[in-house]
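User: Hey, quick favor. My workstation is busy. Could you predict this chain's structure for me?
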Amino acid sequence: MHTERHVRLFRNGRNQALRIPREFELPGEEAILRREGDRLVIEPVKRKRNLLEILATLEPIDQAFPDIDRDLLPLDNVEP
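Assistant: No problem, here it is.
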């Protein structure tokens, strides 16, 4: 994979733009652009994971859940 490539800048309306070569394509639809001295750095926006994706990365729990009702008084039977 190439680490650098010569590209041409062009105008798109009032904005300066460049085409990103295929080998440098970023995932997604958005990116962050920042200036570091004379350099411009482009990074893909990391999408937020949904709860199911996060839960899928967790290790299973081997311990039984504690009995949290153990020391409570019994419930009263209330009829409407």
